[in-house]
Amino acid sequence: MPNQVWLSQLKIHRAIAVIRAPKMVWGEKMALAVASGGMGLIEITWNCDRAPELISQLRSQLPNCMIGTGTLFNVQELQEAIACGAQFLFSPHTDPEMIKAAVAKNIPMIPGALTPTEIITAWNYGASCVKVFPVQSVGGTNYIKSLQEPLGHIPLIPTGGVMLENARAFLEAGAVAVGLSGELFPKKWVLEENWDGITEQAKALMQRLH
Q: How far lies 52's CA from each of 16, 133, 177, in Å?
């Protein structure tokens, strides 16, 4: 999928639901819950229970959503993720070989970076966007805002500290989209299988961002 398509999807949806599930059935329910709440970009982290199977299954179950993966650490994992149908790829770090491998398959690759040097390096290697992580530890929305003047041409997706209350502020600071994990999926709700609560949380997020 060309980068233009990925970027247009980011600009439409503005948020990615990041799912880390110790049980595959929970991962499925979490994905269905946020999709019901109007979220169209869903990341299944590679360390989820049976992640490849879950990604493949969700591609069939949620044809109107884009299903990707994250927490990829090397080229082998990245190739396995592409093979099971992941439509976009996140990593917590910048690895030039991983970016090259994703570019060769025309799959959007979003590596993690933090400093201006790291962000520019990732972009120059061919990243589709750059994940700014962990953003809250370095100033949150102010940090994203301060990157705009020199790096405004690079689409940034902050994660790590994005909440319902501040998600819109990150977009206003210049981020192309945001990633949310624990905020969308409170542990208590997952343990109680409160999928309706998660759907409402996703709806509330979408209302704030649009």
A: 19, 24, 25
User: Quick check: helix, strand or coil at residue 103?
Assistant: helix
End-to-end C-alpha distance for the chain, whole angstroms = 25
Residue 113, beta-bridge partner list: 132
Q: How far apart are CA 122 and CA 70, in angstroms?
A: 16
State the average pLDDT for the chain.
96
> Does the pTM exceed 0.85?
yes
Q: Which amino acid is at 25?
A: V
Rg of the chain on CA atoms, in Å: 16
CA quadruple 103, 106, 111, 116: dihedral positive or negative? positive
What's the pLDDT tens digit per position in 54-95?
A: 999 999 999 999 999 999 999 999 999 999 999 999 999 999
Using left for φ > 0, alpha for ψ between -120 and 50, and beta otherwise, residue 67 falls in beta
**Greatest CA span in the chain, whole angstroms?**
46
Strand-pair partners of 91: none
In a 3-state reduction of DSSP, which class is residue 67? strand
Confidence of residue 112 (pLDDT cuts 50, 70, 90): very high
Q: pLDDT, tens digit, for every residue of 7-40?
A: 999 999 999 999 999 999 999 999 999 999 999 9
